[in-house]
Design brief:
Elements: H1 10-24, H2 30-40, H3 49-58, H4 63-70, H5 74-82, H6 89-101
Helix pairs in contact: 1-2, 4-5
Length: 107
């Protein structure tokens, strides 16, 4: 079973994998699959500017090094930490991974 996605539990991981197989076989539709995604996958919680900075400082790295790990610019890290911009999409997911598992999770 692939564990590249973050699931709420092992049971939900198995359920989602089964639903994915059914979707790929054409036995359930896209709308139903989206329902399984929402119910089984762990949502990405938004981080405040203070939490982003605390996360970077917890990892003992500069904004430049943190940016390199996340494949964004140091300027963007600075804007996140000042609250001028909010991370979204893949960047938010990467921050979530770093929060849970440290920088080694994205290295």
């Amino acid at each position: 079973m692939s564990r590249s996605k973050a699931y709420k539990s092992d049971v939900k991981a198995a359920l989602h994998e089964t639903a994915t197989d059914l979707y790929e076989a054409g036995l359930i539709d896209k709308k139903t699959m989206r329902g399984f995604d929402e119910s089984c996958l762990t949502p990405v919680a938004p981080l405040t500017p203070r939490e982003i900075r605390a996360l970077r400082e917890r990892e003992h790295v500069s904004q430049t090094v943190f940016a390199n790990y996340l494949n964004v610019t140091p300027n963007l890290i600075s804007k996140w930490e000042r609250g001028e911009k909010k991370p979204s999409g893949p960047a938010a997911k990467l921050l979530s991974l770093v929060e849970k598992h440290g920088l080694t999770a994205v290295a």
